[in-house]
Amino acid sequence: GQTVLEASEDLGGDLPFDDCARICGKCKTRLLSGRAVMDAEDALDPSARANALILSCQVRCLDAVVVEA
User: Fold this and answer.
1) Is 48 exposed, middle or buried (0-12, 13-18, 19+ CB in 10 A)?
2) pLDDT tens per residue across span 41-68
3) Local structure of residue 20 (DSSP, 8 states)
4) How far from 56 is each of 18, 31, 35, CA to CA, in Å?
């Protein structure tokens, strides 16, 4: 049930983020492999979505994922 950001922090990762309302877009990162779903995509324009960008603060994995760090 963790977000990619939470899982990264638990593993000692250092993904960028800002403590905000989960729509600022500062935690954008590229999903390199795996399947994930976001609660909302308000901070992502169609071009960002087409380039596999995700918001690590809200995306939840459907299986094992790899993200650009």
Assistant:
1) middle
2) 777 889 998 999 998 888 898 888 899 8
3) S
4) 11, 9, 13
